[in-house]
Amino acid sequence: MSHHEQFYINGEWVSPVSPKTLDVINPATEEAFTRISVGSAADVDKAVAAAKTAFETFSRTTPAERLALLKRVHEVYLERFEDIARAVSAEMGAPLAFARDAQAWAGRGHLESTIKAFETYEFSEKRGTTMVVKEPIGVCALITPWNWPLNQIVCKVAPAIAAGCTVVLKPSEIAPISGIVFAEIMHEAGVPKGVFNLVNGTGPDVGQVMASHLDVDMVSFTGSTRAGIIVAKAAADTVKRVAQELGGKSANIILPDADFEMAVTKGVRGCFSNTGQSCDAPTRMLVPRDRHDEALAIAKVAAEEFRTGDPNSEDTNLGPVVSDVQFSKIQGLIEKGIEEGATLVTGGLGRPDGLNRGYYVRPTIFGNVTPDMTIAREEIFGPVLSIISYEDEDDAIRIANDTVYGLAAYVQSTDIERARRVASRMRAGSVYLNYPAWDTMASFGGYKQSGNGREYADFGIHDFLEIKSIVGFGD
């Protein structure tokens, strides 16, 4: 039986209080492939009440009990791995290989890193005659985006469970099916009633209600900076903790001593991964001024190697963007780049040749971009790369840091000491040197308007805990 038109509340699949449905569009076909129910304040009330009741007992479980539960979730996740990948491919248009190897893998990776960190996590520390203890914060509202659905669901749910919290999850209504599969996994794994709850719906009707709810103790939100501000304001009246992972406009500094062809080529691939729909994508490539034209030539070749098309084809490595709204936004920003005088190296407006439907964007490279241009300042969230020139190392760092965002930064150099020195001056939550492998044990989160708090591994567990000092505890 499909659970697409149900919510998961208090260990059961239930219908919404007030029936209302929403079509889920496959961005590769522009057609609905299923529909979901969307909730209201009444559904949120039910889910929060279930989580609040469950917290009374779940918060008193031992770390060993919660560790065993997470390991069982991991086992069932692996059993449903292909279902997750196919759900992500249908709702996002992700090529199947990418849906398996990156999207579904991300959820698995975060489960494994949370389990690994949890195995040695200390919930108390003696300081003289004071005992400092870490306790679960309470009922947590988790609001996740469409671009990396399992990545963001798991890196919130897993550490919350490890901490002893209970949760209400609202996945993105644009890509909700993978979240429903995850709820099925939690049910099959034997998560106690009320510990994990799922309500689908829109931001105004469900997300903001969760954020402002009197019985919610914390909100963990991932999405745009604009939406994050709305969530924070909704949460402010009840003075609850708000952890946010928001937008980015990450700079990729290619230093003069880098292996230039490799650095530029990998930079293009990093920008275009997930069809450019990653908040930490290296979307601003900074190159020495005297090698700007060389960078454009290399980037053009790298961009034109991408095969855009049917996500079910083994030849495809670039799918559509997620929605008509996103497609239109990207087209507008590409047009803005042309209007403001950037050099269109490849790509541009419209769909790639031979594709007449689907939200497909032409892989696009802009050169001669200046830091004040719109495409250098706004988050595009599509396969669009801006190449910017710099005079020297200090100038590169200045340009890189000249943004309201601070999620990620990238540095390429054959001199690791130089790369580390530049990294120390970057105002970003993560700095990646020479395109390292994805590390789910690293912290993830941003400076400035890219958010607050940190996710992944033990950093994520910490965000779901309160600190209590028991003074006069004794020797």
Please report the total strand number as a whole number: 20
* Spatial strand arrangement across the major sheet: 14-15-16-13-12-17-18
Q: According to CATH, what is the topology of the largest domain?
A: Aldehyde Dehydrogenase, Chain A, domain 1
Query: Unreliable segments (pLDDT under 50, ≥5 consecutive)?
Result: none
Strand content: 15-25%
Summarize the structure.
Helix content is 40%, strand content 20%. The chain is built from 15 helices and 20 strands.
Give a verbal description of the structure.
This protein is of the alpha/beta class. It folds into two domains: 261 residues, Aldehyde Dehydrogenase, Chain A, domain 1 (3-Layer(aba) Sandwich); 190 residues, Aldehyde Dehydrogenase, Chain A, domain 2, CATH 3.40.309. Helices cover 40% and strands 20% of the residues. The chain has 15 helices and 20 strands. The strands form five sheets. A seven-stranded mixed β-sheet has the order 14-15-16-13-12-17-18, sandwiched between helices. The protein has a six-stranded mixed β-sheet with strand order 9-8-7-10-11-19, sandwiched between helices. The chain has a three-stranded antiparallel β-sheet with strand order 5-6-20. Helix 6 links the parallel strand 8 and strand 9. Helix 2 packs antiparallel against helix 4 and helix 4 packs parallel to helix 5. The N and C termini lie far apart (58 Å).
